[in-house]
Protein: ferredoxin--NADP(+) reductase
Amino acid sequence: MPEDMIKAPPAGVFAETVLSVTHYTDRLFAFRTERPASFRFRSGEFVMIGLEIEGKPLYRAYSIASPSWDDELEFFSIKVENGPLTSVLQHIRPGERLLMRKKPTGTLVNDALLPGKRLYMLSTGTGIAPFVSLIRDPETYEKFESVILTHTCRDVAELAYGHDIVAATRANELLGEMATEQLIHVPATTREDYPTRGRITTRIEDGSLFAGLGVPALDPETDRVMICGSMDMLRDCKALCEAAGLNEGANNKPGEFVVERAFVD
Ligand code: A2P
Structure:
């Protein structure tokens, strides 16, 4: 179809060509799109993306998984069988176009945290998306001495995306040294055998997370936390941060921990 035959997107919306799609499991996939030249965002932010379904645009909030310097945009998504958006989005192919609202936002950004020694990124499932943006941003390593990315999933196959990005980041010409020296990746499962097992909340409560890292328990003086997962996971992790004396931050009032819900269709 000639370019001028393709319907123009509504005002305030970009229509970006999909460049690649990678399916990790029957529940998870990642895809990359072109990045509009005028689109600016901070690593860790989310944006509304969508498709026209039965003649109507349908949008959901997705964290941008690529860092702010990247020429392309990357997203990591769950597939929900009857999910209004993901049941269609999971079939997207290179060359097709994705709708994206023009304004990014979010609290999982370096600006919303006070400086500290250690940054903990607590993620479950697709909640890793904003963190794989931040671990590819040099600013994260300039602000924190160590960056601890915890990714807890039901089974081993669901950890593959995180493993791939961490490995690629450590091999990257510009980020490799920082990511090798300062980034600690802590993958874990809850429903399948794996060297590290158990919910992140359990491993914080019983101290095994800190013992494994060889560091003291959460301390508002030195530690900062970003949390991204399901509503229940956020609530429980937030309670643990507050019990340790950390205060919640926001863009206009940086604090010691920040929270954001991972996309669920
Ligand atoms: P579990 O297997 O014990 O339910 P999901 O794919 O359902 O979003 O879950 C992703 C991961 O988050 C799973 O390992 C799951 O553990 C874990 N999880 C679910 N609820 C919580 C919670 N309230 N606190 C911490 N982890 C949770």
